[in-house]
Amino acid sequence: MPRDNSIKSVLIIGSGPIVIGQACEFDYSGSQASRSMMEEGIEVSLINSNPATIMTDPVMADHIYLLPLTVESLREILTKRKIDAVLPTMGGQTALNLAIEAQEQGLWEEFGVKMIGVDIDAIELAENREKFKAHVVSLGQYVAPSFIANSFLEGKNAAQKIGFPLVIRPSYTLGGTGGGICHKEDDFDEALRRGLNASPTHEVLVEQAVLGWKEYELELLRDSNDNVVIICTVENLDPMGIHTGDSITVAPAMTMSDSCYQLMRNDSIQLMKSMGNFAGGCNVQFAQDPETEQLMIIEINPRVSRSSALASKATGYPIAKIAAKLAIGYNLDELKNQITKTTSAYFEPTLDYVIVKMPRWNFDKFYGSEHTLGLQMKSVGEVMAIGRTFLEALQKACQSQENGRSGLGADKKEWIRTEDILKRLETPSDDRIYRVKDALRLGVPINTIFKLTKIDRWYLEQIKRLVKYEDQLMRYNVAEDIPTDFFRELKSVGYSDVQIAWLMRINEEEVTKQRKKLGIIRTYKMVDTCAAEFEAQTPYFYSTFENENESISSDKKKIIVLGSGPNRIGQGIEFDYCCVHGIMAIKESGYEAIMVNCNPETVSTDFDVADKLYFEPVFWEHLLEIIELEKPEGVIVQLGGQTALKLAEKLKDHGIKILGSSFDALDLAEDRGRFSNMLKKLEIPYPRFGVATDVEEAIRVANEVTYPVLVRPSYVLGGQRMRIVLNDQELERHVLSIFKHMPENQVLVDQFLERAKEAEVDAICDGDDVMIMGIMEHIEPAGIHSGDSSAMLPTYSLNDDVIDKMKEYTVKLAHALKIKGLINIQFAIKTDEDGVDQVYVIEANPRASRTTPFIAKAEQVPFLNIATKVMIGANKLKDFTIDRKLEGYAIKVPVFSFDKFPNVDKNLGPEMKSTGEAIRFIKDLKDPYFRELESQRNMFLSR
Amino acid sequence: MIGGKAILLLDDGTYFEGKAGGLIGTTSGEICFNTGMTGYQEIFTDPSYYGQVLVATNVHIGNYGTKDEDAESESVQISGLICKNFTDLYSRPLADQGIQKYFEDNSIVCIYGLDTRAIVRHIRSKGAMNCIISSEELDVDKLKEKLAKVPNMEGLELASKVSTKEMYSLGDDEAKYNVAVMDFGTKKNILRNLVSRGCKVDVYPADTAAEDIIEKKYDGFFLSNGPGDPSSMDYAIETVKVLMKEKKPMFGICLGHQLLALANNIPTYKMHHGHRGINHPVKNLISGKGEITSQNHGFSVDAVVIEKASDRVEVTHRNLNDDTIEGIRIKGTKAFSVQYHPEAAPGPHDSRYLFNEFVDSLS
Q1: Comparing A214-349 with A688-751, is the CATH topology the same?
Q2: Do the beta carbons of residue A42 and residue A8 sit within 8 Å?
């Protein structure tokens, strides 16, 4: 059936603030869906409360509503605007829940709005575990034996019937919240209570645990003619027992035969077709008993899900884009493959490479929480890597992590005590894959590792190959000794030059030099959905070490934008927003925009955002070879957060042009000593501080600056390990802990300004003029990390003198740092003994900050576009007229994911803990929401 | 030895150096590529691949070993294998053996460690051509001499090489229907699909005279898949023509489809590089539904001539990628055929309904 022409205006519901289990992948799906609809001439309205998203940008939809995701907000929109249909499948569970609530209240009916891409009954069926299981059984498919429990007593009874180990799954929760595996009776009561509490309907499923079964996920698309295709099949390296969001996953499935796969395919299609009538995406999870190959249905998500973004990036097939088209009536056979442009969209992508997705955790941010992995998702982001062998993809995934590793081991961070390693294999944590390698290196038999982890032997055998390569490599003394074929082989299984250098105890430069001398350099292959069967037009590349290079550098002038890598606390979706705008501004200025990133959840890695996409680790070795191939005019490091900024020094050392502020400016801001000297010279006040390299020195410094002091390691993100301490004893304990976890680091000791207010400024400088984008005042006092504070734009309690001072300091600093592009400055305002407000500069970040997208959204000014054009020298600030549209105030409200970490310390301090943010507009200070926030401003401050 | 040096030489002089897997030796044939991500064993044992050297685009081959049950014929049929990673270390509790031993037992030469994507792109632009692989003779000039002697696939009759030598039967003697299968290189799963739907099948050598079959009074005829150029199979085309006169249900798959077309004066032609994979979209023009199909063919039915013969032949299925003919029905008869493989193995089961349609028409 062709497009339904009665649909002229569509509302897309976003997923709100980022929380664990529902991250920026929905920004990706929402933006793609929106663009897909606009392409069809449909008027798109979009509601989302998350200002850090690109989907809420005027470039992505016709009408943006930055409103809380509530039925009242929907009513407000529907009253203002004629909407024909609502698409609620692009914003995760949040959007669906809201759509269902509105449905129950009769809102859609009242305004004559059609719900598309979804079948509410199907959603209800998928979410109601008891009904769902009965449904699966009625299809002749298999599910784990289980009982539903609505009370403690029923739960106990169920456990008795099923036996241990068992699984508790609360109904209607996100990312497995409140769920868990229970190995023995002793732990059952508490787990049951937690599960019942987590479920909004006080309902849990008590289910037999199939620990160690293999786990698979299939991504499906269905049209209204009941045609179904499988877009991607993902195999979990970590078997059942670890949430799929916390599992390392691989595509294509490495250890599945066709006979087995086709049964899975049949079951998933039968299941999807049996669940109501809707056109769109769907995800089905399976478990498989490796011994008998018995299949079991775990769950179905009849909507675009977390894994859809990954599947899209893994295959090149734009799931959300096509799902949106299906929702407005098209059939699959009426659409073209977006990558080849000539063949049909009705097909199943095939891969001639391997992808490995690796989650990124932030356990260090959640003190008191358990660091073990289980049924509840705990990762905050993910990376994807592409290679022509499994090992190459796996090691590239490790290099993408930005966890200080250079690949899978072969660095100085390996564990050497077998006992500790085995323990860690048994109780999986964020480092399990590294421990598997450590165990194999120490000669632990594959069988033993298999028994502890149930990771398929094929993967273990592959990782063991690395150990053999390393043994051979260590026989050589200098890089020149490595035989060419062997060298090539090492690179083709993903070793970085740093790893090779470490194993041989030589310098990385020697390895790189010899490698290049032997002509072992990266070639680039295209992700084309069809294993090269058809010619593709889409410039989406990954590197490997083979004969043919498909990435031909054009003769246009080019600029490379460095992405921000995996999402984590302190560096999230907002930098993807910045990168996307950067790319668009570069294109507008007539350059070819090249994106480098490894985060599959992002819009910046969408196939048609940049002129050319390298899906590669934001890791020096990979980056340098891209630069050597593309020979760009320069590289932009200001938009990709700390990840990109960290590479600035190496770029400078290699004579590669950094566009915008120079490396020296970046270093000046980062180096505490140099920065303070500069402030002193500029006569800008700053808190007293000192630097220490051991505990004694730290104590001496602390006494000089006087307690309470802020203590932190230098060069960290999101205030990692930053604390307020009150005395020598506490200081000693904390400094020791820093050195234990981060040896060879320095400790910064700052005077803590008690009862001070905090404010921040974002500005753009073109070398001559400085434009203040906005001044935000934090509602919470100084001491709470800026990312965790509620920020008001504009300021609401600071007097004009203070504001003028902040402006003055911003201009002075921007000039002194020779900023070309963006700068963010954080201030503390403390009233001194004479009652005069003193303005102190706490820090300056010469890059896009967490708040840049927020200000751009609140003022409705394309600040990132302007900043990028200034950075690349295409424009001066005076070329732009700024039309600010904010009336009243905008509040940036942090959102936390504490429910994922029982027992965690929920107090707020200098270390950032929030995972996302929302924007809230208020007319004036009488707003009850604001008054509530203001009244609690001091409550959560801790150390 | 596995991992030793090996060479792949193409007819146009392009050559690649890689590593040796399987049997140490030399092999040759027409190079073709299959894009399936699962089902390597089914592909290796599909008789339609006889005389062809296969490039697997899936980068890891051998991971789940081999299982006797998954074989589509009694032996490995491909002439040789070209792949990226050839892994003898496998993991599948139900498997019978690893791929190295399997290849040695079946005397199959493999070359791996190659830039298979570059090879596929080469074939995509230059078309199908002959090639030679060797892990014993590494002198390119000598391999060139050998390669020159390899016959061209066009005009080559191969079905008789893979067809059964003697008639055999499968299924229950009491079965509801009796079906005669012309074996041009049938896959086991075709027979299984017929048997499981209540047919007893008698499988005949390709060169069996039609009269010998007709006298047995079958309920229907089946024309199997197989290798080679259909236009060179005058004997089989003649058989189909005679069988058609019986006005009984007739179902053809792949080569069988091409023979049905030829028997109705619709010519076939050699494609640039064919269709081989398990993700090819086909539209059923009768129902309007689509199906994802398993395909393996280097020849196709002429789409221009068929348009002109629309009074006699109905096009029932089309390929959504390149619009080639995927299925036909001979008007006024119960004969129909498809270019793709509804029996799958490997591949999706979307098209199994065709077996139902055939069996339903037998009554």
Answers
A1: no
A2: yes
Q: Which amino acid is it at A600?
A: P
Tens digits of residue pLDDT in A770-821: 999 999 999 998 888 888 999 999 999 999 999 999 999 999 999 999 999 9
DSSP state of A144: -
ipTM for the predicted complex: 0.97
Q: Residues 105 to 144 of B: which have CB under 8 A from any A CB? A: 115-118, 120-121, 124
Residue A336 carries which DSSP code? B
Structure tokens at B162: 């893979």
A contact test, residue of B59, B66, B295 with most A CBs within 10 A: B59
Its domain, for residue B229, covers 159-361
The reported pLDDT for the residue numbered B40 is 98
Query: Does residue A906 have a pLDDT over 90?
Result: no
Give the pTM: 0.95
For A633, other C-beta atoms within 10 Å of its C-beta total 17
In angstroms, the CA A374 to CA A378 distance is 9
Which one of the listed residues B110, B199, B254, B291 is annotated catalytic?
B254
* The predicted structure's pLDDT at residue B3: 87
In a domain, B154, yes or no: no
A513 has pLDDT over 70: yes
Confidence of residue A213 (pLDDT cuts 50, 70, 90): very high
B12 belongs to a structural domain: yes
Q: Looking at the complex, does the CB of residue B346 fall below 8 Å from at least one CB of chain A?
A: yes
Whole-number Å distance between alpha carbons of A449 and B62? 22
Buried b (16+ CB within 10 A) or exposed e, B194-223: bbebebbbbbbbbebebeebbeeebbbbbb
CA dihedral A187, A189, A195, A201 (to 10 degrees): 170
pLDDT digit string, tens, across residues A266-300: 999 999 999 988 899 999 999 999 999 999 999 99
In 10 A of CB A141, how many CB atoms? 19
Do A208 and A297 form a contact (C-beta atoms < 8 A)?
Answer: no
Q: Does B2 touch chain A (CB under 8 A)?
A: no
Assess contact for A147 and A158: CB atoms under 8 A: yes
CATH 3.30.428.10 fits A9-116, yes or no: no
- Residue B104, both tokens: 């040695």
For the domain with range A524-659, which CATH number is right: 3.40.50.20, 3.20.20.70, 3.40.109.10, 3.40.50.1000?
3.40.50.20
What is the Cα–Cα distance from A560 to A612, expressed in whole angstroms? 9
Average pLDDT over residues A925-934: 92
Residue B72 designated active-site: no
Domain boundary among B148, B177, B203: B148
Q: Is B254 designated active site? A: yes
For residue A453, is pLDDT > 80?
A: yes
CATH of domain A688-751: 3.30.1490.20
Domain-wise residue ranges, chain A: 9-116, 145-208, 214-349, 357-520, 524-659, 688-751, 757-935
Check pLDDT > 90 for residue B187.
yes
Q: Is B137 a catalytic residue?
A: no
Surface-to-core class of residue A788, CB atoms within 10 Å of its CB (0-12 exposed, 13-18 middle, 19+ buried): buried
Q: Report pLDDT for A904.
A: 66
Q: Are B164 and B125 in the same domain?
A: no
Count of Cβ atoms closer than 10 Å to residue A654 Cβ: 11
Residues of B within 8 A of A531 (CB-CB) are 35, 57-58, 117, 120, 277
Size of interface A-B (CB pairs under 8 A): 161
pLDDT digits (tens, 9 = 90+) for A740-770: 877 777 888 989 988 899 999 999 999 999 9
CATH 1.10.10.10 fits A357-520, yes or no: no
- Domain count across chain B: 2
Distance from CA of B16 to the nearest CA of A (A): 10
